Amino acid sequence: MSEKTVVFVDRYSATGTPRPNPRTVCKGRCEGMGCYPDMKPGVSAADTPFVKCERCGGTGKEPVVRSSSAK
Ligand SMILES: [Zn+2]
Fold first, then answer.
1. Ligand 1 centre from 13 Cα, in Å?
2. Tens digit of pLDDT at every position of the chain (71 positions)
């Protein structure tokens, strides 16, 4: 009687991270998470450290591009 229930959980709800706004979400490796697993060959997923996204600096939001001619 063991009926398997497959519940699809995406990475956002799995980690409790609010879904990012597609207009402001970081387009770097973090995909809006602010950090991403630094996967290396030979390292298991459980031992893979999360590193801060260099693009957004951990905010998960796409950095605001300012005009270089401003100011
Ligand atoms: Zn990022």
1. 18
2. 667 776 667 777 777 877 778 889 999 999 889 999 999 999 998 999 999 999 999 999 998 877 666 45
26 C-alpha vs ligand 1 centroid, how far in Å? 5
Q: What is the pTM of this model?
A: 0.59
* Å from CA of 1 to ligand 1 middle: 44
Nearest to 59 by CA among 2, 21, 14: 21
Measure 39 CA to ligand 1 centroid, in angstroms.
Answer: 16
Sign of the C-alpha dihedral computed for residues 58, 35, 15 and 8 taken in this order: positive
- Spans of all domains in the chain: 18-64
